[in-house]
Q: What sequence folds into this?
């Protein structure tokens, strides 16, 4: 068992325990679902406490470099997959060099402007190999990624949202807003989201990973465009309901402008439950400074079958981002305190 030390804001040293294999005991099998920077934050934390880690990534992005590649080549949007791979890179020179390389964006006056190197690499391997999973595994091997990255579906998806007040001159009118980029920045209040196609197939390896997991972590991330879409893939939702793994719902540090502006922590839980009313969780993790009403959050969590774990997981500089070491400590504590399922037990 390897011990990892980290400094936390009050000057104390935090010691995490990385579980090894063999005579030191098996590692927990963890599956993390999400997209964008929220999933990257979760992965950067989880790779510090387990090497048996699978990231499941949304594939509805239609903006920026990903959107351009998707429109031109008809491929899955690679951007969130790239970010997840970068988050799984090690802290050694090899890992950090490759993380910077795949995140590098070209600056030009031509067609390459704003394309990320990793996006082009992933799409090239998809075309060469004709297999999404095999190509991502190969990129992970090149990077020395400490875990596996999978798309939640093998077909590009469009996110559609019912939004109240999207037209600010008609604040009570419900409109349909299409596209993840548009939903994320909508000026109205998102009521519900759907996927097109409505019943996309899940990647088989995703289902296998969820059913074999000890823990499943959903969130943090853009609630309507990165977190809830996982619950709109029928086979994936069935696997989440059937798995013997314990489940953690990790909340954001602050509401997002547009998408969840004005949302309380408990409202995040309410809208998730509205999209997947039968899905239960074991733990809801939230930053202790982001919860003004702990009793109301506990009440909302109980409706999901969960208890609430409050912890200081925000970056010490005050920015709305998770500190990977503090978030790792919170996950490690949850995994140890709330029991273990399956072969890790």
A:
């Amino acid at each position: 068992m390897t011990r990892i030390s980290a400094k936390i804001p009050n000057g104390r040293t935090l010691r995490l325990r990385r579980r090894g294999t063999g005579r030191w005991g098996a590692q927990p099998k963890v599956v993390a679902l999400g997209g964008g920077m929220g999933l990257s934050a979760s992965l950067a934390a989880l790779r510090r406490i387990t090497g048996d880690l699978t990231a499941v990534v949304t594939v509805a992005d239609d903006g920026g470099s990903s959107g351009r590649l998707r429109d031109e080549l008809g491929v899955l949007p690679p951007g969130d997959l790239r970010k997840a791979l970068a988050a799984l890179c090690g802290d050694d020179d090899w890992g950090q060099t490759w993380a910077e390389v795949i995140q590098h964006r070209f600056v030009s006056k031509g067609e390459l402007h704003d394309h990320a190197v990793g996006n082009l690499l992933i799409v090239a391997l998809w075309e060469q190999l004709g297999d999404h999973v095999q190509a991502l595994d190969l990129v992970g091997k090149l990077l020395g990624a400490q875990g596996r990255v999978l798309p939640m579906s093998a077909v590009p998806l469009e996110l559609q949202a019912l939004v109240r007040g999207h037209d600010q001159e008609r604040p009570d009118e419900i409109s349909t807003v299409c596209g993840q980029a548009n939903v994320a920045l909508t000026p109205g209040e998102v009521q519900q989201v759907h996927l097109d196609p409505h019943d996309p197939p899940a990647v088989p390896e995703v289902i296998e990973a969820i059913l074999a997991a000890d823990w499943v972590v959903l969130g943090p991330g853009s609630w309507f465009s990165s977190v809830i879409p996982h619950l709109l893939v029928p086979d994936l939702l069935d696997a989440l309901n059937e798995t013997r793994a314990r489940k953690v719902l990790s909340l954001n540090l602050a509401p997002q402008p547009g998408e969840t502006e004005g949302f309380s922590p408990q409202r995040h839980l309410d809208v998730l439950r509205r999209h997947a009313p039968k899905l239960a969780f074991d733990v809801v993790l939230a930053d202790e400074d982001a919860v003004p009403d702990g009793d109301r959050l506990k009440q909302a969590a109980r409706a999901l079958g969960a208890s609430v774990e409050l912890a200081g997981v925000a970056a010490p500089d005050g920015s709305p981002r998770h500190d990977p070491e503090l978030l790792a400590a919170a996950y490690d504590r949850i995994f140890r305190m709330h029991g273990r399922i399956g072969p890790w037990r």
Q: What stands out?
A: The chain has three domains: 1-59+199-345, 63-150, 158-196. The first strand starts at residue 2 and ends at 7. Confidence is low (pLDDT under 50) at residues 1-25, 341-345.
